[in-house]
Amino acid sequence: MPSFVEQAEPESVFSSLADKKRVAILRALWQADEELSFSELHDAVDIEDSGQFNYHLGKLVGQFVQKSEAGYSLTEPGNQINGAIDGGSYTADGSMAPIQIEPACPTCGGQRTLEYEADRVSVECDSCDAMATFGVPPAVFADRDREEIPAVASRYLRAELSRLEHGFCPYCDGRIERHAGPASPEESLDGLGGPFPVVRYECQQCGAEPTSGLTIGLFSHPAVVAFYHDHGIDIRDRPVWEFPVFGSDAERIDNEDPFRASAIFSADGDELTITVDEQFEVVGIEPER
Ligand SMILES: [Zn+2]
Ligand SMILES: [Zn+2]
Predict the structure, then answer these.
(1) Is 272:264 a contact under the CB 8 Å cutoff?
(2) Predicted model pTM
(3) 56: CA distance to ligand 2 center in Å?
(4) Distance from the CA of 234 to the center of ligand 1, in angstroms?
(5) pLDDT tens-digit series, residues 146-180
(6) What is the CA radius of gyration of the chain?
(7) CA of 164 to the centre of ligand 2 (A)
(8) Are strands 282-286 and 270-276 parallel, antiparallel or unpaired?
(9) How far apart are CA 168 and CA 86, in angstroms?
(10) Mapped to the 3 state alphabet, what secondary structure does 113-142 carry?
(11) Domains plus CATH for the chain?
């Protein structure tokens, strides 16, 4: 864990970096080979007003910048932030250059790209509308190499889903109620035939309503875990990107009233079909286990 995460909550870390002037101060200290005096540092950045300069510097001292008799220098977290900016994997506003991800889109076989913008990850396909998007605080990615980002994003999404499964809202910790149903017309995907099933996680406190596909919603069901285990696969190690996000052939609505929908899991040519009702209770497992 990067040390700056231990020192403060991610929100306060990144709000203290939210201003471009503060990032400029950190960059100036990174480029200097030695401690800089107050006036040397002020000269090195493009902030004319010395009151403003003093204010922003003050916000950095302690956590990212240290002051000694010789002058100002970076703390280890200050070095880490600069290293991550140089590595191109991180900018202070919670975004990064798009990354291609493997494997191909399970819904259509297209190429997918992971983007991180304004603290949100989006995985989009170049040839269908199946898309995953979810919030991730920048601290999650702060000390990661670019190649690691898709796997880290996957693990973060799994952790969020686990909170939802246990009944806690990821935004406010309020109570979550789950329902399964057909995707609404607004959620329907161009290029995919027919309605497809989704799971809605409805927060009773803040009203948030995250939605997932059935497959992803059933990841930690014991029958699914056991099915993969029997095939020598620990599903916890598999990136979520290997599974359909929404609307693939592996998810179908069996009946509208009463509502029944199924997700089909496959490994080595074997299949496991899990059927759920409107309350997202499992009502059928094929073959029986
Ligand atoms: Zn696709
Ligand atoms: Zn909530």
Answers:
(1) yes
(2) 0.66
(3) 34
(4) 25
(5) 889 999 999 999 999 999 999 999 878 899 999 99
(6) 23
(7) 10
(8) antiparallel
(9) 37
(10) EEEEECCEEEEEECCCCCEEEEECCHHHCC
(11) 3-86 (1.10.10.10), 96-286 (no CATH)
